[in-house]
Amino acid sequence: MTSEQHDALRVSLGVYAMNKADSRERQTIREHLDRCSSCQDELADLLAIVDLLDRTALRPRPITG
């Protein structure tokens, strides 16, 4: 894998973490993650951020009164 290909996969990790990658992209990323510990670490960080954003997202307030 070239450095450029690796960089492209790293950029795709955010899309993968948000579960927005298409099936082909998910498969490519999974295969890469099987052998790349630095991307595994980065994905773990991204998943933690996505989880935090999900838990702190602004929710519409109910209308009262």
Report the order of strands and helices: HHH
Topology, number of strands: 0
The helical percent reads: over 70%
SS summary, helix count: 3
Question: What is the SS-derived class?
Answer: mainly alpha
**Low-pLDDT ranges:** none
What's a quick, concise take on this entry?
With 65 residues, the chain is mainly α. It has one domain. Helices cover 71% and strands 0% of the residues.
Describe it for me?
The protein has 65 residues and is mainly α. The chain has one domain (3-56). It has helices spanning 3-17, 23-33, 37-56. Helix 1 (3-17) packs parallel to helix 3. The longest helix has 20 residues, at 37-56. The radius of gyration is 16 Å and the shape is elongated. The chain starts with a helix and ends in a 9-residue tail after the last helix.
